[in-house]
Amino acid sequence: MNGIKDIIKKSFLEGFSSNDINLKTVVVAIGITALISVYIFIIYRLMCRKTFYSKNFNISLVGVALITAAIIITIQSSIVVSLGMVGALSIVRFRTAVKDPMDLMFLFWSISTGIICGAGFAEYAVVLAVAVTIAAFVLDNLPISKAPSILIVNTTGMDKEQAILEALKQDTKRFTVKARNVTAGSMDMTVEIVSKDVSELIKNISGIEGVTSVSALAHDGEVTF
Q: Which of 87, 96, 111, 174 is buried most, with the most CB atoms less than 10 Å from its CB?
């Protein structure tokens, strides 16, 4: 009975330590991972349109890919090491919220690159990089619909609302009054508009008697159809 247990134990442990992992293999895998992760760094910088670009997050994409590749290379050497690594990583908790879905895509891309390169399939990581880049740029530049703008109009009273609405009907494809703020002697209107020429619309509304100011803001939310 003990002999059978020894045979099973030996074959189980040795079966997962048969990979010939040497220093050259590790250096090549880490080097390829570094090149692809730097490529991810560049693509993220080109696609990021945020007002506050996070360089720290972009650098972390490179670090995550390299660390993941090192972990995958390590756990291939022995089933004992892999189980220990899983146990150690299971206690790690990440509480940083990823607010932008695009950041989440780049984070998974970085992790996937580390896993693929660490497993010895670097050519697949290159194919993945090309495919993700093409898909991201094509979809990002695909003309779907014109994003609406937010128009804020300040007037001296509610009696000017009808004139403003008439101007909106003439110079916009569609509009939706989102809010009206009425105070003593003045009114503020917030309108979501879709217009080909916002400058001309502002000029026409500014010419209405009683309009004190007109502001147009770019809409950074979902595109309406």
A: 111
Q: Are 155 and 186 in contact (CB under 8 A)?
A: yes
Q: CA-CA distance, 202 to 151, in Å (whole number)? A: 9
Mean pLDDT of the chain: 77
Residue 105 to residues 67, 71, 136, 174, 211: CA-CA distances in angstroms?
18, 21, 10, 34, 46
Instruction: Kindly list the structural domains of the chain, giving each domain's residue range(s) and its CATH number in brackets, ordered by start.
Output: 2-140 (no CATH), 149-218 (3.30.70.1710)
Q: Is 181 helix (H, G, I), strand (E, B) or coil?
A: strand
pLDDT one-digit tens code per residue, 39-82 = 999 999 888 865 567 888 889 999 999 988 888 887 776 665 66
Whole-structure pTM value: 0.62
Query: DSSP states of 114-157 as a string?
Result: HHHHHTT-HHHHHHHHHHHHHHHHHHHS----PPPEEEEEEESS
Question: For residue 47, what are the CA distances in angstroms to 102, 114, 127, 218?
Answer: 9, 21, 19, 19
